[in-house]
Amino acid sequence: MFFSSSNLVKSLTSSTSQGNWFAGKFRNLKSRSKWSLYASRVEPYSTNGADRSYEGVAAVDGELLWSGRWWARPIDARKQIFCNRSLNMKSIDAIGFDMDYTLAQYKPETFESLAYVGTIQKLVHNLNYPSELLQWKFDWRFMVRGLVLDKRRGCILKMDRHKYVKVAYHGFRELSRDDRQAMYGNTLSRESYDEPDYALIDTLFSLAEAYLFMQLVDFKDAFPDKMPSGAYDYSQLYKDVRSAVDLCHRDGTLKQAVANDPSKYINEDPLIIPMLKMLKQSGRKLFLVTNSLWDYTHVVMNFLCGKCGTEGGVPRDDEWLSYFDVVVTGSAKPTFFMDGNRTPLFEVDISTGMLQNTDSGVPMAQIGGVGLEGVVLPNATVKKAHRVFQGGSVAHLHNLLSIEASSQVLYVGDHIYGDILRSKKELGWRTMLVVPELAAELDVLHQTMTIRKEISELRTQRDDLEDSLLRLEWCLRHENHTDEDQQRLEQEVAHLRKENAIVREQHRQGQRECHHLFHKTWGQLMKTGYQNSRFSHQVERFACLYTSHVTNLCYYSPNKSYRTTEDFMPHELQGDRR
Ligand SMILES: Nc1nc2c(ncn2[C@@H]2O[C@H](COP(=O)(O)O)[C@@H](O)[C@H]2O)c(=O)[nH]1
Ligand SMILES: [Mg+2]
User: Fold this and answer.
1) Residue 307 and residue 419 in one domain
2) pLDDT by residue (tens digit) across 394-405?
3) Three-class SS of residue 104?
4) N or C: which end of the chain has fewer CB within 10 A?
5) pTM of the full predicted structure?
6) Known binder of ligand: residue 483?
7) For ligand 1, atom 19: residue with the closest CA
8) How far is the CA of 328 from the centre of ligand 2 (A)?
9) Which residues surround ligand 2, an ion (CB under 5 A)?
């Protein structure tokens, strides 16, 4: 027996008044102007490039560094370094950097478009895809990192940390909840959502190819007869796109264009040199490990660190090399980090690009490169002072840097798998992930603070309403009442059901709209509903630190002890509910 009749009446009265309160809240939230106000103020897409406009030119002389006059706490959230695993920088002897999308932030609107157009040209000219593809347009804002591409079904998915698919598109058509459930909802045979049937969109390099794949899926559905003979299924489309993209990276399509005009494709960053100087001054050894080859690395690093002004020209300048103790190009990460990797290490002659095998001493041409035209390499006088390598393994690197324990190394990269997961898992290096999308995400988080609080309150109200309803339904079914009480109960149950449906829908809609303020298709990068997204789950597991931009290191002492925020179990988040 749960209630006496008089208790029941009391509880009904309180439920009813709660219902009125909901109704008021509902009206309040129902006024769409509030949402539209936010919608109009918030850029609905996240952008890959963090907004750096607030930095100003003074940064060049170090004034904005943590040690400068302008240092202030708390640090602007967009510049903060967030900590998943405590890290005392005093124990770090060597700091390494990845180059592409870590030190060099590519401009998505130009660089990804270049990759998109180059890939289409290869599909049409090398793989017999119809020439009408050449007219296709690319929306560089559409795709985001963290999505999973289902090669067999031609779908793209966003999932939560438990690998439940929460948003799914086939081509550019969103799957209904029922279709999504039918395709991905079988809890008994949960997929790993990994290669070979799935591809993770975990680097910013993959956004253009994911977009193109979805376009091809729609195209194949609409015009199956127009596809080239081999493209009989979606997986084959994916393979073709992949090989076309791969070729763009290898044959100079992308790199020659960047070398011709770096400022068109790469954001300048006046804080790179102050950051490197500051870290070097602190006594740390600095190294660069990039998958890019020497000539391209020189172009990009020269642009970032050289004194080439804002015209986009790249005058000869070798100064960037002086900030690094060791530079490894063509590193073939993540294999570079693997235990037992026996890849030979070559020393690069930086003035000719020729390779010298460090074991046999036989000079040879750069492996894997096409030779970029118009790139001026350093002259022979500087080559003795700086050591640049190609290939090799982490064991070579540890030797070159005299590293005894891998926990003395911090590596900063952008690729969760290639840079972070392997170096952390295989080696135990400490890691920092650069997530440029974070800056825009933090902006929207800030702007939606009030609205998210209200949605969370609505969620609590929904749950309370549901509990009240379940309770009354139970009483109706299992207890004996006078006819009069029975009638009142039935009325109340009917009333609560209505209220519950309204609040439920209101909460669902509010949450959906709020998510779409982050990105109109995929929502918040780090969340799916109330759960962490698969992407943020990986960030949490493998990146000791994460931040929106590599030069945010400028705002902290190189001896800082980064400490994690407190973990919370659900029961600790009860607040004053007693
Ligand atoms: N051959 C391919 N190269 C690729 C692909 N995607 C990216 N890249 C190249 O890798 C490096 C990344 O450098 P890092 O500094 O981040 O280690 C850069 O040169 C890219 O062009 C690909 O699909 N195929
Ligand atoms: Mg990179």
Assistant:
1) yes
2) 999 999 999 988
3) strand
4) C
5) 0.86
6) no
7) 292
8) 13
9) 98, 100-101, 414
